[in-house]
Design brief:
This protein has 141 residues and is of the alpha+beta class. It has a single domain, classed as Roll (Nuclear Transport Factor 2, Chain: A). 32% of the residues lie in helices and 21% in strands. Strands 1-2-3-4 form a 4-stranded antiparallel sheet, with helices on one face. Strand 2 and strand 3 form a beta hairpin. The termini are far apart.
Amino acid sequence: MVDDLGVTAPAHGRRGLLHRLSRSPRPEQPVDVIESVVENLRALLNSDQGSCASSPEFGVSLHDALSRWDSDKRKILVEIGERIARFEPRLTDITVTGLPETNNLRFNVLIEAVLPDGRPFRARTDMAVIGDDKVKLTDAL
């Protein structure tokens, strides 16, 4: 698929960094850090672990996490925090907390961290298999 700028989109529908930069109304203006972090977290949490050949640790095994949630909740939260720390280095002091879930097919987590400029970062996720995107990451709170 070719967009209005003549850029060919990948077959899976997601566009890369160069496309996002080319769509910026003012390329010389830096991208908002919070928006960028949220987008990276969406990509990380919506990728199946092992699906990235150059970095097999990238992503989250959501089906595995859902199947182990009741028995291994604490370990799963630690694993998610470790993935975020590894693949989103702009966040520090990361805490991932489980929130009350609506049923046993989904779970919610709160991600709290510190941005490079010292501002707090908070985002809530709804982790479930819901079509193409498995994780809904709300904008930073």
